[in-house]
Amino acid sequence: MVDIQKLERYLPFLHNLVHHFDSIGDKPLSIQMTQKLGISWTSPLTLSPPSPSFLTDADLRGPKSFQIDNLCFELGIVQFFLWCNASRMGFTNLLQSATLLRRAAGVYQYLAYEFLPLLKDAQSFECPPEATIPVSYVMSLICLAESQIVAIMKAKEQKPADILLSKLHYGVVKYFDLAMIFYSTATKECKNFSPILMEYISCYKVLYELKSYKYMAEAVKAEGKTGNAIALLGKALNNEQISAGGTKSWQKVIKQDV
C-alpha cells in the first residue's frame, strides 16, 4: 500500500516534468539535461545474466537492474508498476475488485497502443520487459482474465446454470490463450526473460479449462447423458496432462482442483 501511495504522488509530478521537457523543443539540450539522471529500476520479470561461477541455475539468479536516463520511459514504467500493484490489492467487494482490474487492463492497453509505440523508434538502450509493448498486452489480458474470474465469483452467488458457468470459465481460458501469444513475442524482444509470468498464465489456463469442462460435464449429466459427461471429464484430464507445466507449486494448485 505504501508503494502505491508513493507512486500515486510521484506520477502527477512526473507527468508535469515530461510535459515541460517536451516543450523545450531543443533535443540536444533535453538529452544533456537527462543523461545523468541515474534513474534505475529492478525488473521482477528479468533474471540477471548467468554467473560465471557454479551458481548458474535460473532459480538462483535474482532480478536484473536497469538504468534508463529517459523521462518518458520512466513515466511508462511508473504507470506499469502502479497498476500492477493496484490490481494485486485484495478487496472484499467483488464489484470494486472487478472495476479496478478492468481499469488496470485499460491502462496497459493505453501503454501498448499509444504510449510505448511512440518511444520505440527512440529506444537506443536495453530496457526492461515492463517497458515493452508485448508485455503490456500480456498484462492487459491477465487483468481481463482476472476480472472475468471475479465476475464468476459474483455470478456464483446467484447459483446460475452449469452451462453458463462453463462458458464463463472458458472465457478466462481465451484471455490466457491470447496472453500466451503475446508472451511468445515478448520472449523474442527481451533477454533473460523470467519464466514466472508464463508459469502463471499456463497453469491458470489449465486450471480454468478443467473447471469449464467440469461444469459442462455437470450440465450434460443433468440431461441424462452420463456417458458424454464421463468423456468430457476424460478429455479435460488428458488436456491437463499434456498442457500442465511450471513449478511444483503451480502443479499442486492444478492437482488440488483435479
The number of helical segments is 9
Helix content: over 70%
Low-confidence stretches: 51-61
Arithmetic mean of pLDDT: 76
Report the end-to-end length measured between terminal Cα atoms.
35 Å
Broad shape: elongated
Strand order of the largest sheet: 1-2
Domain BRO1: 66-240
InterPro entries: BRO1_dom, BRO1_sf, BROX
Protein name: Endosomal targeting BRO1-like domain-containing protein
Family: Belongs to the BROX family.
SSE layout and pairing:
Elements: H1 2-24, H2 27-34, E1 40-47, E2 63-67, H3 71-87, H4 94-120, H5 133-156, H6 162-189, H7 196-222, H8 226-243, H9 248-257
Antiparallel strand pairs: 1-2
Helix pairs in contact: 1-3, 3-4, 4-5, 5-6, 6-7, 7-8, 7-9
Key traits:
258 residues; mainly alpha; 9 helices; two-stranded antiparallel sheet; elongated
